[in-house]
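Hi R.,

Here's the input for the S-adenosylmethionine complex you asked about:
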Amino acid sequence: MAVPLRTDPANKSSVDEIRKRFDGDVERFSNLETGQSASVDSPLMLSLVTEAAARTTPAASRVLDVGCGAGNYTLKLLEQLPGLHVTALDLSGPMLDRAESRLLAAGASSVRKVQQDIRDFHGEPGSVDIIVAAMVLHHLRTDDEWLATYRKLYNLLAPGGSLWVADLVDMQGSGARTAAWRRYAEYLEQFRGPEYREQVMAYIDREDTPRPVVFQLDAMRAAGFVTLDVLHANSVFAAFGGMKG
Ligand SMILES: C[S@@+](CC[C@H](N)C(=O)[O-])C[C@H]1O[C@@H](n2cnc3c(N)ncnc32)[C@H](O)[C@@H]1O
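And here is the predicted structure with S-adenosylmethionine in place:
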């Protein structure tokens, strides 16, 4: 099994290609019980992230879900913090429509849909209490984009607010990297066979540019986050977050 991600970032999928792919994939992201099955420990990360968010910022009334997809993370958060006002941000219109109907049915007080690339989003500083970004930031490409995005998310949070990320991640050291990707390949093969493994690895190679957790925690710290925690890490998936003091 080759480690993917060899493609030059300049030759990766464009934002438009990514949007079109997700436009046609709404069903796969609409199951709260399984989460996204191509990810290792998806239901566990969903529950760790939302419990940490609710316990860190218990008086939250406003949430921003970056790359909300069909809304799984905010749906789960609503079980612990009912009546949230939700800003749902995604590239994909069909994903946003599905998220809106599911979130309103689950008791969200309001849902504001924003169809935009997170890189282009300019919200009001201090306007949200919790931000979740699940399985989305790995589409960011350059160092500058990563640093600017973490700065932006920090600025959007009110004092005491918190940001929680669950994502596909890479490793820094070559040994750890090979081991982590091998484990993920094994997971995919056991889940649905060798063809499925190759298919998922090929689209990661084409579409994704994940960064190590350590790089992301450094970016969060540089942005101003003070209390940082890793909630979970298993092969090339991790969940972590931080609080704005
Ligand atoms: C893998 S899905 C995850 C959906 C949801 N967060 C979940 O965990 O169930 C990634 C979502 O992020 C959106 N997305 C990808 N790149 C984005 C970007 N640059 N800005 C905003 N949304 C993006 C896609 O359209 C897609 O709906």
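One thing worth noting: The chain has a mean pLDDT of 95.

Cheers,
M.
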